[in-house]
Recover the amino acids of this structure.
């Protein structure tokens, strides 16, 4: 049985992501959890004639049954940006949502793969890891910040100016984190395409701030949902192909804890505990963190800038869990 749980399943990302996952023949049970409307979304999806079972679960009381037996939990729960906001502005609301969901996962499905979409990813992934550490169930191979949308955007934007670059066939490595200057596309390593310095500058900026384009265009009605659902389904599918079917050689970028095996091969000893990099996926999740070499001077400088911002984002997430006052429940 392969049970995949979507937490935040009734939302802008959650609904199309669940639809795409309903197409997957790797999933036998799709459990949809939200604080509202998940029963209706599940009823709707359950009429689709693919083999997986769909169940809906609403509210905290139904969270344990949603999570029990999960192979993978995908988390797009939380509020999205409005124009003028940074992803870090979402921390105030989303940190608590992600922490509470992580606590439930640590209790009810401690061995599941956890895929974090909720922003700010640079901080929410450390939150999940710290919750799992506290509960003594932390396995760094199994927790991922989903940065696939940055990779998807990179391929699309490069194709727009270099039509010979096939966007669905070629993957571009994007490292760092998932917000503005922390997003570092490695355009110098794209094969058979050359860019002028001006093109590199424009493309890099567009990839780093691609999320803002959508926030602005939606004009207060949220951020990227459909492209994110596509990216989230792609990452989930790759992970399932590797972990369920045992397919080898599958590589995706993800924001991971660098205590993972192979992490010592991390690009430039950034000194950071978390960094988005290409990872090879396997039966246990992260098999290998792929090393990067031969960055251009411009990319080296971008990484340096990203490190400063990431340090602050990571420490904010870690402190949110480690410095929290002991709850009344825990004192009893
Ligand atoms: N990683 C990425 O690349 C990426 C891309 C796009 C959006 N995002 C982020 O994903 C998140 C969701 O975006 P959206 O557009 O789907 O927002 P949305 O408001 O449309 O949906 C969020 C859903 O989460 C639910 N929710 C809130 N609290 C919850 C809780 N405690 N438990 C379960 N569900 C809960 C809401 O009821 C809602 O259905 C945002 O934080 C956004 O910034 C990340
Ligand atoms: O831009 C956002 O806030 C949502 C998401 O992180 C994105 O990159 O589209």
């Amino acid at each position: 049985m392969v049970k995949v749980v979507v937490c935040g399943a009734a939302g802008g990302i959650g609904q199309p992501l669940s639809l795409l996952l309903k197409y997957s023949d790797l999933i036998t049970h799709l459990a949809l959890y939200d604080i509202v409307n998940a029963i209706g979304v599940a009823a709707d999806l359950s009429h689709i004639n693919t083999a997986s079972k769909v169940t809906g679960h609403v509210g905290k009381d139904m969270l344990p049954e949603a999570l029990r037996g999960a192979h993978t939990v995908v988390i797009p729960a939380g509020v999205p940006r409005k124009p003028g906001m940074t992803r870090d502005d979402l921390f105030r609301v989303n940190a608590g949502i992600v922490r509470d969901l992580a606590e439930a996962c640590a209790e009810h499905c401690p061995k599941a793969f956890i895929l974090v979409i909720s922003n700010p990813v640079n901080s929410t992934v450390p939150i999940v890891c710290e919750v799992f550490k506290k509960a003594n169930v932390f396995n760094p191979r199994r927790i991922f910040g989903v940065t696939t949308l940055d990779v998807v955007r990179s391929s699309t934007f490069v194709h727009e100016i270099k039509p010979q670059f096939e966007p669905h066939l070629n993957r571009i490595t994007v490292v760092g984190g998932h917000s503005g200057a922390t997003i570092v596309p490695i355009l110098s390593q794209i094969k058979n395409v050359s860019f002028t310095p001006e093109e590199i500058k424009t493309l890099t900026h567009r990839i780093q701030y691609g999320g803002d384009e959508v926030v602005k265009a939606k004009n207060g009605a949220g951020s990227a949902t459909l492209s994110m659902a596509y990216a989230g389904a792609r990452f989930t599918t790759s992970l399932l192909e590797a972990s369920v079917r045992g397919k080898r050689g599958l590589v995706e970028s993800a924001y991971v804890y660098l205590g993972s095996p192979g992490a010592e091969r991390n690009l430039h000893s950034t000194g950071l505990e978390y960094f988005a990099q290409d990872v090879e996926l396997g039966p246990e999740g992260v098999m290998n963190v792929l090393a990067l070499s031969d960055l251009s001077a411009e990319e080296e400088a971008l990484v340096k800038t990203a490190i400063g911002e990431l340090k602050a984002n990571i420490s904010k997430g870690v402190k949110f869990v480690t410095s929290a006052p002991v709850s009344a429940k825990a004192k009893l």
